[in-house]
Amino acid sequence: KCPSLDLIPVIDSTNQYMLDRVGQLPRGAVCLAEYQEAGRGRRGRQWLSPFGSNLYLSMYWRLDAGMAAAMGLSLVVGVAIAEALQSLGADEVKVKWPNDLYYRDQKLAGILIEMTGQAGEAAHLVIGMGLNVAMREQEGTAIGQAWANLEQACSALPERNLLAATLIQRMQETLEHYEQVGLDGFVERWNRIDNYLDRPVKLLIGERVVEGVARGINSQGALLLETEQGITPYIGGEISLRGC
Ligand code: ATP
Ligand code: BTN
């Protein structure tokens, strides 16, 4: 059940494509590309998007409850993607707060949510996902951190259409469910697949570094970090989590 699907071989960024068409799209509309010339991650970082088997996907969603309900959405989408991949046999896929999917401590996929809309009105969201499927080693040399392919995480790689359809369907169902139950309904599901649960981590907050043990998320979607001072919730887009 996909209300509109644009398949575009070469594009600058699937998120940009959807952002440019926000007013003209039905909820759940999807754009899929084979190659991105300007794939992007959080805070202007680059998302390496070579041609081949990787998935570059963006979905449009309108949240009638407005921008405030968009908080925590990347956590919910992370659960949707992880569970979809697990259902296809990649049972070790985990989430990393706030917007990544990991396999064996390596980055498998990233989520980028961009939005437009006025305060007090519906929020128009573009939910982007880049998933490494079978990227060649030499294509990923510019990535400044450990990364993985779905190929490694599955005993048998699912056929590409099945992979895309499973992800799209799970994202749509999960977003609908989120609108009814809010983040509360996802905290336990997220914590169950948290790559860093009960592990030592550091948070990079601008120039500041805080070390502690990760204790999952709370009902606001904040990361819980335990230090000698106790457990502190951290929230906000300017925080990066790193394993120690
Ligand atoms: P954080 O979100 O915690 O700040 P991050 O380093 O993962 O951490 P993001 O902005 O989420 O930052 O993602 C962009 C980063 O992802 C890039 O700077 C690069 O290190 C990495 N990256 C880029 N392309 C890929 C890819 N195809 N696969 C895996 N990782 C990638
Ligand atoms: C991240 O880890 O920072 C998020 C990366 C998101 C990449 C995807 S690929 C499809 C969509 N189009 C983009 O330009 N970015 C997202």
Automatic annotation (TrEMBL):
It catalyses: biotin + L-lysyl-[protein] + ATP = N(6)-biotinyl-L-lysyl-[protein] + AMP + diphosphate + H(+). It is an enzyme of class 6 (ligase). GO terms for molecular function: biotin--[biotin carboxyl-carrier protein] ligase activity. Its EC number is 6.3.4.15. Keywords: ATP-binding, Biotin, DNA-binding, Ligase, Nucleotide-binding, Repressor, Transcription, Transcription regulation. Biotin binds at S13, T14, N15, Q36, R40, G41, R42, K107. Residues 1-179 form the BPL/LPL catalytic domain. It comes from the Bacteria. The keyword Transcription regulation applies. Belongs to the biotin--protein ligase family. Acts both as a biotin--[acetyl-CoA-carboxylase] ligase and a biotin-operon repressor. In the presence of ATP, BirA activates biotin to form the BirA-biotinyl-5'-adenylate (BirA-bio-5'-AMP or holoBirA) complex. HoloBirA can either transfer the biotinyl moiety to the biotin carboxyl carrier protein (BCCP) subunit of acetyl-CoA carboxylase, or bind to the biotin operator site and inhibit transcription of the operon. This is Bifunctional ligase/repressor BirA. It comes from Photobacterium atrarenae. The lineage of its organism: Bacteria, Pseudomonadati, Pseudomonadota, Gammaproteobacteria, Vibrionales. The chain holds residues 77 to 320 of 320 of the full protein.
